[in-house]
Write a structure and sequence with these properties.
mainly alpha; elongated; single chain; 4 helices
Length: 67
């Protein structure tokens, strides 16, 4: 829970274009982004700023080795 609360600071740092992009939507968790059920390409096409966000770097341990 504390991790989610700390992440709220990052939400406040979104620029106006990013805020407009996610209006009515939500940013995926790292596990959702990396492991599905939607592809990383789908997320990036809907939220382009995810492509350059270092938090959204998929490694084998994110999905429990089931890439």
């Amino acid at each position: 829970m504390l991790h989610k609360i700390l992440k709220l600071k990052e939400v406040q740092q979104l620029n106006k274009n990013q805020q407009k992009t996610i209006t009515g939507g939500r940013i995926p968790t790292l596990r959702e982004f990396c492991c599905g059920p939607r592809s990383q390409g789908w997320w990036i096409s809907h939220y382009p700023f995810l492509a350059t966000d270092p938090y959204f770097t998929c490694t084998s341990d994110v999905c429990g080795g089931n890439w």
